[in-house]
Design a protein that fits this description.
Structural class: alpha/beta
Number of strands: 10
Strand content: 15-25%
CATH topology of the largest domain: Rossmann fold
Largest sheet: 6 strands, mixed
Order of helices and strands: EEEEHEEHHEHHEEEH
Shape: globular
Number of domains: 2
CATH class of the largest domain: Alpha Beta
Distance between the termini: 51 Å
Number of helices: 6
Oligomer: single chain
Radius of gyration: 27 Å
Helix content: 25-40%
Length: 195
């Protein structure tokens, strides 16, 4: 088939192609495109959001808690739950975890769920874009609940909240509850995306 002065040949799929285009040329172009995409510096890609993860708090409405007061094993579980959350977020690569030590004393002096957004103010002081707080509600030694709240540190708006019920006040139940929230909520693909 002649088109002007260029002779077009037919390929196997019956599409006219100029003679200078061959499979080798197409593969070279595709390879070059892939390599150039991979060589884009990491700084040109979007950076993960900076997050401040505050220590978890305990709301104990159980009879045992009212009579005996705070328990050391529950306080250590609160710390481990926060550490488990921080470790998973850091390892995911989806977030840049900030150190909350500069505002930790003030955060511990406040009830972060009832202070009117002081967690957002603390997160802003750290330069974070997100604030994560958590609370464990204890009704009894058999009925507990872990709640995690993710807020925009610039606006103070709640982005998402997640919750899991626990049956049993043990190290294992707390760890499994936090693992569930991480796997199926906070770090789950497309969690919170419009359906």
């Amino acid at each position: 088939m002649k088109h002007g002065r260029t002779v077009l040949r037919y390929n196997r799929h019956f599409v006219a192609a100029p003679p200078w285009i061959s499979r080798v040329t197409i593969m070279r172009i595709l390879s070059l495109a892939i390599v150039s995409t991979l060589l884009v510096p990491a700084s040109a890609r979007a950076d993960p959001p900076k997050v401040a993860v505050f220590d978890f708090e305990l709301i104990d409405t159980s009879l045992q808690g009212e009579v005996d007061g705070p328990r050391t094993d529950e306080q250590s579980r609160l710390m481990r739950a926060g550490d488990q959350l921080r470790k998973a977020l850091a390892e995911s690569g989806k977030f840049v975890l900030l150190d909350v030590a500069p505002v930790n004393a003030a955060a511990h002096g406040s009830h972060l769920q009832a202070c009117g957004g002081c967690d957002v103010q603390y997160a802003q002081q750290l330069g974070a874009g997100l604030s994560i707080t958590g609370v464990v509600q204890k009704v009894s030694n058999l009925i507990l609940n872990i709640n995690v709240y993710l807020r925009d540190a610039h606006t103070g708006h709640l982005i998402t909240s997640m919750s899991v019920d626990l049956r049993g006040n043990t190290d294992e139940s707390w760890s499994r509850g936090m693992a569930f929230l991480l796997r199926n909520r906070l770090l789950a693909p497309n969690y919170g995306a419009p359906q």
